[in-house]
Amino acid sequence: MFTRMTQWSLLLLVVPALLAGCGLGGRAQPPESEPSPRAQRQDPLIDAELRSLRAEQQRLAEQAESLHAELAALKQGQEADRAERRQFRETMTTNFQLLEKSVALTLSSVVKPEPAADEARPRQPAVTRAEAAPAQAKPAAAAARPPAAEPPAVAKTPPSRPATRPAVTAPRSEPPVARPALLTRAEPEALDDPDLEPAPAARKLAPHPEAKVLYEKGFALFARQDYDHAVAVYRDFLVRFPNDIYSDNAQFWVGEAFFQQKRFDEAEAAYREVLRNYPHRSTLEGFKTPDAIYRLGQTYLQRDDARRAGYYFANVAARFPETSAGRKARRELDTLKLNMVDAATPPSDPGS
């Protein structure tokens, strides 16, 4: 009896303990889905990091939008700059053409060429008058001779014509020193200028995109007759871009600025730099050689040295007859010949 009660007591003690150990009784276990305290401490850090990333993403998006707007503005400004450059080039071209026309009108007012026979005058009439000038230089002797003595002097004129006519239309290979002989009577010695020979160390020119803006700035100043500042800009151009394709033009316009200011010695020095440093080629190829030689003649003409002026006019007319400078030089030669004929012709006697 006692033994049976002891067994039941033991069972009553063991069974509840087993039920509590297997989870079938006692307190309920915490659910596995509930986050641990460590995970709860990490959630705010992750949220803060996400918020920071979202803010950075928003900032980058705004920056990209700003850059797109700036790029569009730059493209628009570039297009406007190109349009302005095109307009500026057109304006400069117009100004240059107007300047050329102004020079041509000034020369025409001095030379007074005959419109219908402008091209024919340098050939026969001019040579005949130039050859007749020595015969008319002695009015006393001509007046003393009887009428029968005149034919021999006239008969000598035709044979000398082939020797003198090529002086105006001689090819480039002939020496230019013989050409001004038609323009002088008092000084028989020949002129010689080594600068008229092709430059032995002519510069090889190449384009520089950044040089054109500075060159156009100098030309704009020249067109506004601001000659001192134009010279400064062109000299800066020549220092920075001595071998640019516009460098000979810049050197020529330095001379033009001095010429317009009647500083003829400085103008001559500038024109000679064109001949000494750059290839001797036609303006039809973009070079300034003919204009520089023609302007040398102009400087001497302004200083009352008609003989030297004729020397340079004859040179450019023979070497570059197809250029504007060559055509203007032929008209200048006609004028010089006519003036010499007028000076050699004795005044008419009112009583005769």
What does this molecule look like?
- There is one protein chain.
- The protein is mostly helical.
- Among the domains are: 206-270, Tetratricopeptide repeat domain (Serine Threonine Protein Phosphatase 5, Tetratricopeptide repeat), CATH 1.25.40.10; 279-345.
- It is 67% helix and 0% strand.
- It is built from 14 helices and no strands.
- The chain is rod-shaped and about 175 Å long.
Q: Major sheet: size, sense and barrel closure?
A: none
Into which percent range does the helicity of residues fall? Answer: 55-70%
Q: Compute the gyration radius: what is it? A: 48 Å
Contiguous low-pLDDT stretches (5 residues minimum) are 110-189
Strand segment count:
0
Oligomer: single chain
Global geometry: rod-shaped
Describe the secondary structure blueprint for this structure:
Blueprint: H1 2-21, H2 37-111, H3 124-136, H4 139-144, H5 150-155, H6 157-164, H7 166-169, H8 211-223, H9 227-240, H10 247-260, H11 264-277, H12 289-302, H13 306-319, H14 324-344
Helix pairs in contact: 2-8, 3-6, 3-14, 8-9, 9-10, 10-11, 11-12, 12-13, 12-14, 13-14
Label this structure with key terms.
352 residues; mainly alpha; Serine Threonine Protein Phosphatase 5, Tetratricopeptide repeat; 14 helices; rod-shaped
What's a quick, concise take on this entry?
It is built from 14 helices and no strands. It has helices at 2-21, 37-111, 124-136, 139-144, 150-155, 157-164, 166-169, 211-223, 227-240, 247-260, 264-277, 289-302, 306-319, 324-344. Helix 11 runs antiparallel to helix 12.
